[in-house]
Amino acid sequence: MPQRPALFPTLLAGASLLLVVHGLGRFIYTPLLPWLVQDGLLDIQQGATAATWNYLGYLIGALLAVRWHRVAQIRRSLPWALAVNVLSTLAQTQAESADALYALRLLNGISNGLVFVQAPSLILEWLARHRRISSSGLVYLGVCVGLILSSLLVSLSDGLLQGADRWWPAALLSIPLAWWGWRQLARLDMPEDEPAAVSAVEPSGRLLDRASTPLFLSYAGAGLGYILPMTFLPMVAHLQIAPGSFLIGNSWLVVALATLPSPWLWNRLGVLLGDAPALRLSYVTQLVGVLAILLLPGASGILICGVLVGGTFLGTVLLTQRLARTLHPHQGPRLSAALIALYSLTQLAGPWLTGVWLDMGGTLHSAFWLGAGALLWGLLWMLLVPRQR
């Protein structure tokens, strides 16, 4: 088939863009945070506030993506979102105050939310034209590679850079990756009027009903439950583990390595067990991971949490998206955008609640009980989601 040679570069381009906005733009902040605190650029509370501004931006970006969902709109807004993402990461190299970093993390989050929704959506529409939808999940491998790369960039530059200069490796690498990725997607043979057929079916069904409402409520728990370890795990490692331990500088690398097989693994479990049972298993796995850091203080709890949460959260995302489409098969794009917006809203609550808890005299370690409670909430609501092919 003539379109087959273009499949790999297109998926690689999409993965590259997710690597830029999610790995280098968003999640590199997690391994950077302990060093930014150590360098005196931020304190722990300011670090939580900066994360909150980033997640607020991600929510705004996801909501904008709900509005700009047609191919013509994506072609116009996606390159601008990429430019804002790269430039805001670059500007962070000059952010010497917490307030400046708050503003830049907000902009970075808005552009991340737009790209994270729009790039996979554009590729999915293109794959649908060529009847290759089953390959769409490979785009999210860019997130996995981005987590590993972000950890390596922070580790390798430690001792060479300090303070705001620690952002330079991510900023410089983002520029060529974003440029190449967009060049590939700009060439896709997508008629701009094709999505009109998709939008025409949106009014035909309700977004929430007795089948889908428990799934939405469950997914809210997933967003809040995973974001605490994905934001503060390296910080807790610095606070709890003796100096010189491997996990002091590499807890994020453990998380990143655990993500690599997760898209394939959880997709396979969904096929073997069914999406709903596999999704329940993913909640149990993440809950065990968060409880490990609470009940097994020290290196063992950090390691178990990193492996179980890192190896599961992308699976929860993929399985939820797929299960939602079986519950509302004619509302795929609308449903996907709504779920991402909800997920980003509950992610926003995590760092904010952590900041409130710290203000009340609580510890960062004990704040992880919020994540455990959220995952238990998600698991209980998942029990009410019907099995449906």
Largest sheet: none
- The topology string of helices and strands comes to HHHHHHHHHHHHHHHH
Return the CATH class of the largest domain.
Mainly Alpha
Roughly how many Å is the radius of gyration?
20 Å
Number of domains: 2
Q: Any guess at the CATH architecture of the largest domain?
A: Up-down Bundle
CATH superfamily of the largest domain: MFS general substrate transporter like domains
Give the overall shape: globular
Oligomer: single chain
> Could you report the average pLDDT, rounded to the nearest whole number?
84
Cα distance spanning the termini: 30 Å
| Helical coverage, percent range | over 70%
Give me the secondary-structure category.
mainly alpha
- Return the CATH topology of the largest domain: Growth Hormone, Chain: A
Strand content: under 5%
Low-confidence stretches: 193-204
DSSP summary, beta strand count = 0
Count of alpha/pi helices? 16
Organism: Stutzerimonas nitrititolerans
Protein name: YbfB/YjiJ family MFS transporter
Subcellular location: Membrane
Membrane topology: Multi-pass membrane protein
